[in-house]
């Protein structure tokens, strides 16, 4: 897993220990190419690209992700690339741009059940917004694999977990991981 776009997030989700700022340093314009060259040299067959939220960038960083995917696929066409993304503020054009970049797996974490969203996530994130991102990614490219994750142990009920699973399945999310996130 490789983190793009720096180490400073523009959001403040309550579960996360990543540093935050409303004005993080600008992204490195050469990062997509440098990242692709490094990954291609490692000889791996699968890589996950992820990032902090970058609400300070007009497209949320989707273009940076897409550029990295395209560069990597050019250097190593057989590699499978998963991008674990932010919600890009619900910008479905940003989602489509990344989904059509050559990406193999579009991942976006819904994080928690509907009733716990405001308690757990930054107010700019939301349950329906996350569902919209995943639905758009699936619709953009035939055969696109979509993936999400739910954190457990935050106070949700079994019924709420089942409903979240049903909501994700209703928009054809292919893979769901369940886990816990403990702030360090």
From TrEMBL:
Matching SMART domains: Elp3
Enzyme Commission code: 2.8.1.8
Compartmental location: Mitochondrion
Molecular function per GO: 4 iron, 4 sulfur cluster binding; lipoate synthase activity; metal ion binding
Pathway this chain belongs to: Protein modification; protein lipoylation via endogenous pathway; protein N(6)-(lipoyl)lysine from octanoyl-[acyl-carrier-protein]: step 2/2
Record bears the keyword Iron-sulfur: yes
Protein's name according to its UniProt entry: Lipoyl synthase, mitochondrial
Top class in the EC scheme: transferase
Pfam families, alphabetized: Radical_SAM
PROSITE patterns membership: RADICAL_SAM
Cofactor binding comment, as recorded: Binds 2 [4Fe-4S] clusters per subunit. One cluster is coordinated with 3 cysteines and an exchangeable S-adenosyl-L-methionine.
GO CC annotation: mitochondrion
